[in-house]
Model the fold of this input.
Amino acid sequence: MNKLVGEALVVKDLKTQFFIYDGVVKALEDVSFILKKGEVLGIVGETGCGKSVTAYSIMRLIPDPPGRIISGQIKMGDYDLIKGMDQEVDIILKKRPKIRHHNKMIKKNEYLYNKIRGRYISMIFQEPMAALNPVFTVEDQIVESLYLHSKTKILRVIKSASEHISDLQSFKDKGGITSELSGEVGVELQKIKIQKKGFESEGKHLEMLIDEATKYLAKKNKYDEMLKESIEVDSLEDSLFGNIGEEERARILKVLSKEAKKSHLTRLTKRLKKRNPDPVISEARREAFGLLESVNIPNAFQILKNYPHELSGGMLQRVVIAIALSNDPQILIADEPTTALDVTIQAQILELLRDLRKNRGTSIILITHDLGVIAEMCDRVAVMYAGNVVETAPAIELFHNPKHPYTIGLLQSIPRIDDPTKKLNIIRGTVPNLIKPPTGCRFNPRCQFAFDKCTVEIPPTIETSEGHTVACHLFSGKEVR
Amino acid sequence: MKLYVYIIRRVLLLIPVIIGVTLITFYLSHLNIGLLITEYEGKIHTYAQRAIVMKELHLSGPVWAQYLYYLGAMFTGKWGFVSPGDVDPGVPVFTEFLKRFPPTAELALLATFLILVMGLPLGVLSAVRKDRATDHATRLGAMAAVSIPSFWLGLLVLNFMLAPTVSFLPHWLVLYGNGQLNWSVYGYWHGKIAPFVSPTGGLSQPTGFLLIDTLVYGDFPAFFNALWYVFWPSLVVALTTFGVIIRFMRSSMLENLGQDYVRTARSKGVPEQFVIKKHARRNALGSSTTVMGLIFASLLSGVVVTEIVFSRPGMGTWLYQAAYNNDMVSVMATTFVFTVVIVAANLIVDIMYSYLDPRVRLE
Done:
């Protein structure tokens, strides 16, 4: 996966529909966009335009029934998330062709997708208050995420710490981290140092690391065995994303599903609660502590023990971000992350996301209906209307030179403090019912420039200038697709 | 708040409840004093006997004084006598209660266990397979089971499972459950059959619970025999009740599966199995506990029909007989016990709920 250059995610002709009693809701119709590595892509549009459905389609979180991804490509590097999944299902179905419920099979065997979610792509949700499970502590929920995906990394850190245990001890006695070490533990110490939370925090980390390292030395064989297993599983999983033959893929899937059954995962629920837990979990606690500090949560050690209802909205959103970041994903989808928060907290959360992009190089898809947030955060913007991407442009270009009538309407409907007399322009009407969308261009009933062609023909996407595409009959130029 | 402080406060709250309930039962049973002394008809022949009864029931004093005496007696364990004869003062109600309570408690506990074991998984299954064959079948089955009257189902079970004449069961099982509680190694060792139920005594019962006592003596044949006879009535009770818990669990699971945190769990890459078992079910259990507590309390006090059908010597049969015979002392005593049981069950449910859902604080 690390070979990726250029594009982090390519979405092409994505079509998602909901099959409900009244008919088929054509929620997404040929949505295409590109997310480049390390950039922030804004997706903007009114409520009901399919922004969230796009995000859920990428994450495969569309509830099925009633929703389904009909066709399209979601490519992460060379790997097509949708096709890959289907291949997986095909392999499984070939083994048991009698089973008729394909959807059920997909759900049951979303093994590969569960590896992608949280590890390569993770998501932040709109309502932090509801996004965390009320009956588990913050710690449990972060540790769960780490335990699912970062086992190898965690075991490596423990191993490295056990090799440098005397150095760690001397660091602790001297007070804080003074010099650097090689290997995994060095990287880990570097991270702690970057966070610059003072001696107390560093001391805490060191204490926990030393604790783990001592445990490691006591049960060296067991840990080494676990690390070996974990590395094997990881390499198998990574190989699934590459170009391999169908037989090879089937074999690997078989091994992995066997592995998943016998692995500690199956006993995850019990292990989290036990007094003497899995070594990976106790080290994951230290990691969780570090994560909370990295999202600027004060008094992180106490917060870990709290339940979600004991924290404020801003705090919870940080915790949700910490969970999303726990496995260092390449892509982060933020679905209106600031909508439910008050203005000062909004600014802090946006600052956090910006730092994240800068420090870790994560690509971010930022879904919002707030053009202010877009202006503040994004490199490029995709404007969505009624399940279509109508315009894509670099952020500055979009604000200075909007092309599509819908974009123009959106920009004009922002109240401006510098011309108080003018009546606010709004786009008349509402987003159409997507069971029976308007023929031709879906925006035509609300468009002030609409002419005959608009009601008949679906407009092609046209590149008007470098990186600026628009789907409208008013413009002519090179057709992108 | 500390847990024990909370429990003490709740127990203190029990006092007004008990006073209220006893006041009502006392008032109703003393509305017609004739009812109260019907039992003594034909038994009181002398003035001395009359004086004893008058003194026993404090009939010479005003009604409120009678009530206070009664209340005092309830708290000191002097609960009166069941069907006193002209010479024999009768069995003390408290002794009768100690004899009658264990069979009912065994039945209710086993039935609750069966309800939980059958109801919760089926509820979860029904929610996960919403609107599919499994869901429809589960709901239909639950509905049918609940709709069957318990006495009819009880009679069916009695005829086909426990009666020796008509049975689908293999020969040895029919012999095993041949209609009497009499299968015990003590039968061979001591020349006695049925150590605990023989009228001449037999062994002393440490707890009164047959299932426990037989295990205390290590008498496994007797244990399985006792289990056999408590299992079938429990199954009848469970089948006629568990539909409630299935429906409750189903709707509760559906609600929780639609919550945002389930979506978050999925987006973390938690396998679907754990999304259901860990995240959603844990939350759904909290609200089901309340219903379960109420069901348990109602079972302890409300298995009258089943007990009568199966002739179990429990609280239900006792209440039925007492009401039939105008044995007001026993009726008041059973009502008192049921009150305490229901309040205690609610207390336990509240404590369990606070453990299951950290948002609920005991106060």
Remarks:
- Chain B touches chain A at residues 259-261, 263-272, 274, 277-279, 282-283, 286, 356-359 (CB under 8 Å).
- The CA atoms of residues 23 and 100 of chain B lie 24 Å apart.
- Chain B is about 75% helix and 0% strand.
